[in-house]
Amino acid sequence: MQNNPFSAELVDRLAVARRVVVLTGAGVSAESNIPTFRDVGGLWAKFRPEELANVNAFLANPSLVQGWYRERKRIATEAEPNAGHHALAGFEALFDDFALVTQNVDNLHQRAGSRKIIELHGNITRSYCIDCKLKHDEDDSRTVLPEGHASICCPACNGLIRPDVVWFGEMLPAHAIENALLAARRASVCLSIGTSAVVYPAADIPLVAREAGAYVAEINIEPSAIAAMLDESVIGSSGNVLPVLVDAVREARRSMKKYAT
Ligand code: BJW
Ligand code: ZN
Questions:
Q1: Which of 34, 36, 47, 106 is the best mutation target for the ligand 1 pocket, counting ligand atoms within 8 Å of the beta carbon and taking the most?
Q2: Closest ligand relative to 159 C-alpha
Q3: Which of 86, 109, 121, 136 is catalytic?
Q4: Do residues 241 and 6 touch, judged by C-beta distance below 8 A?
Q5: 85 carries an active-site annotation
Q6: For residue range 188-224, what is the model confidence (pLDDT) as tens digits?
Q7: Nearest bound ligand to CA 26?
């Protein structure tokens, strides 16, 4: 265990835990070559969030925002889940009660095989009409709109089509945040992985878990905004740390069984 970036306590707690909640952010997909939001060269290096990720920006310049999301949808669709996504997909079978709460909209946890997912900020692969709410399933990622071209509109009512994501100032899906907070309150271990933890209410989840008595660790290449409020800060990339952590938990479980009387 000595060479591991995480503590023996984290492994032991996970080995005996029955209820676990994991919060993920854009850092988990960085090793799939999907840019994060706030890192150097991230998604907001060129555009400030208030310019694109809010409804007023969309209404002011729908084709610009649609184009930005269309390009990000293409990148996400062409990306492959990485070792961190796969390790988390294997993690859920180890616990009776497990929730993977993700802020990510890129669909990579789903494609890696995770099933117990709570999507806090929606999913970039879905779209809907802002007027009649009709789901827009057509793959508009392949539509090439020249600069200044008219926006993509609903075939039923001609309303604007928007991505099914949560922008600043919008409410999170009620069932998603409620279920995430319930999972946080009953967890005995919480992991916060690859998130800067500056966006609320998502950043509350590890804090709520800790307040309710969970052991809370984060995994990040650098300490997040809430690192000082957690039990443990594991410095490393999720693609490197998670497979080793999952193996260590499996091994600890095997040892526990071996010595159980
Ligand atoms: C690695 C790595 C590797 C890199 N391995 N790690 C309380 C206080 C203050 C403000 C508020 C508050 N409550 C609500 C608010 C307002 C607002 C908010 O939080 N503002 C703050 C920014 C100040 N929140 C909202 O508006 C939310 N709605 C809401 O609260 O409704 C009620 C309400 C309405 C009005 C007023 C008040 C209340 C909605 C938030 C929606 C967020 N939407 C976005 C865009 C989604 C669509 C899209 O994708 O375009 O969600 S913003 C963006 O940030 C996206 C992300 O999910 C989210 C979080 O980012 P994340 O994932 O943490 O990414 P990064 O880039 O920030 O961090 C990456 C991390 O990875 C870094 O730490 C790296 O070090 C690390 N990393 N490589 C491990 N390999
Ligand atoms: Zn419509």
A1: 36
A2: 2
A3: 121
A4: yes
A5: no
A6: 999 999 999 999 999 999 999 999 999 999 999 999 9
A7: 1
